[in-house]
Amino acid sequence: MKTIGIGIIGAGRIGRLHAENLIRMKGVRVVAISDLFPEPAQEWAASIGIPQVSGDYRELLQNEAVDAILICSPTGTHVDIITEAAQAGKAIFCEKPVSLELERTFTAIEAAEKAGVPLQIGFNRRFDPNFRKVKDYIEQGRIGDIHSVKITSRDPNPPSPDYVKSSGGLFLDMAIHDFDMARYLSGSEITEVYAVGGVLIDPAIGEMGDIDSAMISLKFKNGAFGSIDNSRKACYGYDQRVEVFGAGGCLTADNDFSNNVRLFDGSGIHSEKPKYFFLERYSASYVQEIDDFLAAVRGEREVPVQGRDGLQAELAARAARISLLEGRPVKISEVENAIKEAAAQ
Amino acid sequence: MKTIGIGIIGAGRIGRLHAENLIRMKGVRVVAISDLFPEPAQEWAASIGIPQVSGDYRELLQNEAVDAILICSPTGTHVDIITEAAQAGKAIFCEKPVSLELERTFTAIEAAEKAGVPLQIGFNRRFDPNFRKVKDYIEQGRIGDIHSVKITSRDPNPPSPDYVKSSGGLFLDMAIHDFDMARYLSGSEITEVYAVGGVLIDPAIGEMGDIDSAMISLKFKNGAFGSIDNSRKACYGYDQRVEVFGAGGCLTADNDFSNNVRLFDGSGIHSEKPKYFFLERYSASYVQEIDDFLAAVRGEREVPVQGRDGLQAELAARAARISLLEGRPVKISEVENAIKEAAAQ
Amino acid sequence: MKTIGIGIIGAGRIGRLHAENLIRMKGVRVVAISDLFPEPAQEWAASIGIPQVSGDYRELLQNEAVDAILICSPTGTHVDIITEAAQAGKAIFCEKPVSLELERTFTAIEAAEKAGVPLQIGFNRRFDPNFRKVKDYIEQGRIGDIHSVKITSRDPNPPSPDYVKSSGGLFLDMAIHDFDMARYLSGSEITEVYAVGGVLIDPAIGEMGDIDSAMISLKFKNGAFGSIDNSRKACYGYDQRVEVFGAGGCLTADNDFSNNVRLFDGSGIHSEKPKYFFLERYSASYVQEIDDFLAAVRGEREVPVQGRDGLQAELAARAARISLLEGRPVKISEVENAIKEAAAQ
Amino acid sequence: MKTIGIGIIGAGRIGRLHAENLIRMKGVRVVAISDLFPEPAQEWAASIGIPQVSGDYRELLQNEAVDAILICSPTGTHVDIITEAAQAGKAIFCEKPVSLELERTFTAIEAAEKAGVPLQIGFNRRFDPNFRKVKDYIEQGRIGDIHSVKITSRDPNPPSPDYVKSSGGLFLDMAIHDFDMARYLSGSEITEVYAVGGVLIDPAIGEMGDIDSAMISLKFKNGAFGSIDNSRKACYGYDQRVEVFGAGGCLTADNDFSNNVRLFDGSGIHSEKPKYFFLERYSASYVQEIDDFLAAVRGEREVPVQGRDGLQAELAARAARISLLEGRPVKISEVENAIKEAAAQ
Q: Which of A249, A254, A258 sits opposite D265 (nearest CB)?
């Protein structure tokens, strides 16, 4: 079996995380990494055996030893890189969201489809052992037809105002994972979104035109309902839970904890808070999503999270934004048609 | 301390439950019970020492030994009985809802207020040890300002079509408890309701013009959000949970179980389903609500669930019904104004 | 079905508890209660409708309306009362232990057997919903052959030195419940006991010649092992758990809690301590044991905890005492033979 | 900081596990691995970048690039290798037990002490996040003086008869981890052991002269008690729990699970069995123990598990064996003195 050559675009936190996971995997080699500012990554790259650090991602696309690229650069660069990488015939893994502009997401997905290259979107939570087990049970029919999906998704701390400014807002930056999870677990498309939300935590987020708290109501094509509960700050840590209720039962997935010790004392019973944040909580999922991507590159399986999955989640996020602003439920088809019309012009 | 004389109107399941709880309490005596069909209740009443079973509730209202009445008769009779009991100067405990017609609920509450008699509505779940503990923690400031309230409320089995027909529908019959719980826990008024729902369980319920599943989104006056998740059938039993999230923490109350044994075997870990239904799950709350009512009758405390609480929950249920039918969020003030206008005509 | 007339001997805490439970049961009537000091019990007895309070238990034994007696007087009186009650043909329920002197326990049991009257010993924990469920699973063969039984039994607070003095010591006063539970759950006889223990909590207990902490190792006739862990003071409340391990699985029964609320905050997750003490924790078991006793009195079933069960637990307690004092494992047969020899002399 | 050169002796399961963990660590390099049968390890070693595979461990001891060795060869070879490695001035990490012959354990420990080289014993469970947290709380004084330590330690499946034959028996092969845990958590020395045990699972184990089930009672120097519960087969998986009870509270550490999903259905609530066996359950601990060993080699800290710790656990295991055979509690000092006398002859 041929060793897969990987090029990583973007040497920030998530790019490095993927790199460090990749060097432990078999049948794959990180050929090169690129970053607009390559200098600070040099030493780190050398220490884990990445031979080349480039200042220009195009060098990776032109490198014949690179079979697949991981796009870990800022969201604004995704569409161009996907398009160019597709033309260069590389398999593509791209962090979410594809784009903050839905019209451009279409373009990128079409480029990949036209070129016939695999395109996987980085919805890593699908690969979390808890949520994957929930999905397994659903697929085994253990809870029958699904009636509702409820997602609790709270960060331990709000992002900096700077981050918020370029993030696309709570729905596109944070809830997008939950929209994807809702689609993944329900096995159905979201058809309507109604969002209530506001600034309950940090006025600075409000000043950026964003919100920090939301409760989102969903309708699915298969008749099920959903709800997503988002907060930018849960003082007890990263709160990531799902519940799926069906005709034959109910499935719950709880948070993960760094230990399970319980202390019984005169004031009650005490245990550890959930794991702090996504790097700790979802560490296994970051490995698994790349494992599955590599298998898809080898042609052993379908890409597990397709470009169209990225698009659907972005449509839901856009619908949530409109819903919040206009105080009404918004159909996904309404957003989709508007995008298509805009794209047609 | 004078012994309180109680008259119970309605000798059905809930009337008998209250009677059997009352005979174990101190400082109170069940003087009489009435039922349109008094015959079947005779033997039971004698066996627990209730001296009189009447076919006409008015006999209880005229009985000077009756200080307080418990209205456990069908919903359609509540308003008239409240009005007459208020005029007779009796303290009143009335099962929920006060009425299926909001305009008449107004009338009844005003009658009690005008007469200056205590009127308590039977939202027993406020007295559940779990939910009361959640409320206590909130009042102690343990989770700071409240950001969201989430309620899971699923019955183990759908009611009979006959029951559904006269029930007022899922929102007024079932979710009304949850609207009250949402107000109780948030410490704030519901200002807007958006409901999605449908018939996922029993087509017969749909034929009655009702739904059996719903997901309700709430806005509260204090800026918090809420969600209520209702189902008429959870195959694993009565599912009654709440979660309150605030700036300083999160509170969860789980289901109750008849034992806590865990069986570890080759196929996993297994434990008991939640307690079957409300009589088992909420047995302690039925005692506590009457205890508190008796204390209010004695003037030792405020009535814990007032007539206005009954009204607010009914307003939310009505708003949910409109929301479902019209596919839009509905403000409580819109419903309230419409009721007031109707009442004014 | 004839109403059973009950006489209660001893109007202390446990006598009153049984009385208050009995007045809520059907087909039974508390005819009289006796206490060496009848005065303080008069008002209480009247308030719950017990017509007679006597200063002499013999009046109860002579009362033809009394079908069964509950012996709730101090341990030192049990044997005489059992013997006399048996002669009077009364069905007998006796609190544990039958006696602090094993030789006399024999006598009492023989008296009851000779008279052919039912004799039930008050090992109420067998009737706890958790432990009973464990037993049910075992009897259903859910964990196959039993390999070990582990019991955790810790009180929330040590008894007063006065109580300790007349208690018979930790093994006979406290661990006796656990010896019975070990027999009940294992479905086998204890054959050997090895006890380590000491005074870790309250030197005053040591001054009385007793211990306050112990770890007891058991062998059962069926080849299984056991361990009992006793403490007179668990600062977090009454700790009552069992674990039974078998070839086909493991069963655990946890403590009971007054609510199941969890508080998540910046310092972790917090929940309630176990229920405080036996009156709260075992309230259901006190009702159930009398229910089953009444059924036995009616001839509907066997006495669920026989005199011989009381004896076996006392033999184990005696063996534990010898083991602790002599620092060696002690066979139950050794103790039994010694008792029989002593009785024969 | 100088890179530490590691030589691994033994390329079986545990040797390879350490090797694969080491290649991910910083500041350390696996220089060579040896095995009596080097052939089968060649390809594996090459794939993870170990430059040399030797058939003779002495080559590693003579290799100047090797600063520290990991002894992962069969128990029978430990003492000789420790002695020679100490003479060669290498830092030593040795899997447990040091030896099946206590007299030789003495010799090995003395050799390391005389040479002044660090010697760490592979009691990896001390480094498990759960048990370490329990220890942390104890050291913080969160439960005050310790009264008892209870350890549940059950394997998912019995070893093969071949393995049993050379294992040293249940106490020295399996319970030895628990003896170490008991010492670690109690912070005190075991002074007396009483063991009951037998063959409840696999007669083949009995034919080898070993047992497969045991319940061990412990006394500690500080007055606390302990109990260890061992089984070679828990059909629901690897059962590894501890409980430490003290004057100020109680600490429990539960099993670990591969996910936390709960399935509620008509038959109850179901969740996953514990992780299967030590490689899954204790994976983090194998990394952490080597991390701490490397820190000790660098002189940054004390060796966390010393040779004397290995010895004490072996003394307890020997005492348990004698206790089982002779049916009496055995003092550690009795075993220790016997060993010293034998060593003196």
A: A249
The dihedral sign for the CA sequence D129, D133, D139, D144: negative
Q: What pLDDT is stored for residue D1 in this prediction?
A: 67
* pLDDT tens digits along D3-23: 999 999 999 999 999 999 998
Contacts 24+ apart (CB under 8 A), D83-90: D83/D107, D83/D108, D83/D111, D84/D58, D85/D61, D85/D117, D86/D111, D86/D112, D86/D114, D86/D115, D86/D117, D86/D119, D87/D111, D87/D115, D88/D61, D88/D62, D89/D115, D89/D117, D90/D7, D90/D61, D90/D66, D90/D117
* Location of each CATH 3.30.360.10 domain in chain C: 126-278+311-339
Query: Pairing relation of β-strands A262-265 and A249-253?
Result: unpaired
How far off is chain B from D207, nearest CA to CA, in Å? 27
In angstroms, the CA B212 to CA B174 distance is 10
Per-residue pLDDT band for D24 (boundaries 50, 70, 90) equals confident
Tens digits of residue pLDDT in D260-300? 999 999 999 999 999 999 999 999 999 999 999 999 999 99
- Angstroms from B250 CA to nearest CA on chain D: 20
Q: A4-117 architecture in CATH?
A: 3-Layer(aba) Sandwich (3.40)
Q: Is C236 helix (H, G, I), strand (E, B) or coil?
A: coil
Q: Which fold has domain A126-278+311-339?
A: Dihydrodipicolinate Reductase; domain 2 (3.30.360)
Q: How far is CA C120 from CA C115, C179, C181, C292, D199, in A?
A: 14, 16, 15, 10, 37
Provide the token pair at A312: 């659907």
Structure tokens at C21: 């439970």
Instruction: Name the percent of chain A in helix, strand, coil, to the closest 5.
Output: 45, 25, 30
In chain D, ranges of CATH 3.40.50.720 domains: 4-117
Environment class of B299 (CB within 10 Å of its CB; exposed 0-12, middle 13-18, buried 19+): exposed
- How many angstroms separate the CA atoms of B194 and B284, rounded? 32
- pLDDT digit string, tens, across residues D210-237: 999 999 999 999 999 999 999 999 999 9
Pick among D264, D273, D276 to test the B interface (most B CBs inside 10 A): D264
pLDDT digits (tens, 9 = 90+) for A48-68: 889 999 999 999 999 999 999
Instruction: Pull the structure tokens for residue D200.
Output: 């409840």
- For residue A30, the model assigns a pLDDT of 95
- Asked if the Cβ–Cβ distance from A269 to C236 is below 8 Å, we say yes
| Interchain CB contact of B126 with A (< 8 Å) | no
pLDDT for the residue numbered D26 = 86
pLDDT given for residue D150 in this prediction: 98
- Averaged pLDDT for residues A208-222: 97
Residue C119 contacts residue C82 (beta carbons within 8 Å): yes
Residues of D in contact with C194 (CB under 8 A): 194, 196, 217, 329
Question: Which chain B residues contact residue D252 at CB under 8 A?
Answer: none
